[in-house]
Specification:
Blueprint lengths: L5 E4 L3 E5 L5 E6 L2 E4 L4 E4 L3 H18 L6 E4 L4 E5 L2 E2 L2 E8 L2 H7 L6 E11 L8 E2 L1 H6 L5 H23 L3 E15 L2 E7 L7 E5 L9 H4 L5 H12 L17
Antiparallel strand pairs: 1-2, 2-3, 3-7, 4-5, 6-7, 8-12, 9-10, 9-12, 10-11, 12-13, 12-14
Helix pairs in contact: 1-6
Length: 253
């Protein structure tokens, strides 16, 4: 499709004006970043895999009645989404201890939590996306109490769906983060899952071996990120017709 006006460029995606009012074209880049962009690389094929996988998850959520901003995939790197007002929060759902939670609370990575824990971070790269409480959210007016009730419900529904889907292909959903947007129909507002759901925004471990199949592969220099994401897509049955070349070292079939 013809290139349109750029609206915003982030670390992993670029947003363009959509073909119709109220739509946006979301382009998935090959850039990989970690530690608030202190670590950066360009990994061929990553954007293609994230586009395909995010489409798969968004369509699945829509089928069970969870509203998303996703409309359709346009090509290997672009998808058409609804324009929405992003609530300035990252919503993190944790099923097992890992990453910052393990560091903050001294819990061994991989420890199953008593129940899913939902955390909130304020979206601000300059501040390092700090952890915030519902008290902060209410005080600064980032979301109403009704919004927070709806966000919690949406986050747990996504967790139920994602956990089941990944378990069926031998992958443990350790944790994930989502973003929520507001869509307006006249005076009526509803909340939708926005941004993306992909191995960039989830921790995914092989149930049998514990092998990491997510961005921790890049964060911790554990091998080929392309191979890890390709394995997730292969297990879910959504490998693209022209898959990206495998990284090095290559996996032997």
């Amino acid at each position: 499709m013809a290139r349109r006006k750029k609206i915003y460029e982030g670390k992993a995606k670029t947003l363009y004006e959509g073909p119709e009012p109220g739509t946006i074209v979301q382009y998935f880049k090959d850039d990989a970043t970690a530690f608030n962009a202190e670590k950066h690389d360009v990994i061929e094929g990553k954007g293609v895999l994230n586009n395909i996988l995010s489409e798969f998850f968004m369509l699945g959520l829509g089928q069970i009645g969870v509203p998303t901003h996703f409309l359709k995939r346009l090509n290997m790197r672009e998808q058409l989404v609804r324009s929405c007002e992003i609530i300035p929060l990252e919503i993190i759902v944790r099923n097992y201890a890992a990453g910052s939670l393990s560091k903050r609370l001294g819990i061994d990575e991989g420890t199953q939590l008593p129940r899913p824990i939902v955390e909130y971070c304020y979206k601000d790269d300059d501040l390092g996306d700090p952890l915030v409480t519902e008290e902060h959210i209410a005080a600064f007016g980032w979301a109403s109490q009704q919004d927070m009730d709806d966000i919690l419900s949406l986050a747990l529904r996504v967790n139920d769906f994602m956990s089941g889907v990944m378990l069926a292909v031998g992958i443990r959903l350790v944790d994930f983060k989502i973003e929520i947007g507001r869509v307006y129909d006249g005076d009526f507002q509803r909340l939708v899952i926005a941004d993306e759901i992909s191995p960039d925004s989830c921790r995914l471990w092989d149930i049998k071996t514990g092998q990491k199949l997510d961005k921790d592969v890049f964060r911790r220099d554990l091998g080929s990120l392309t191979d890890a994401y390709t394995e997730v897509a292969r297990r879910l049955g959504v490998m693209p017709n022209n898959p990206p070349a495998p990284g090095k070292p290559q996996l032997v079939n």
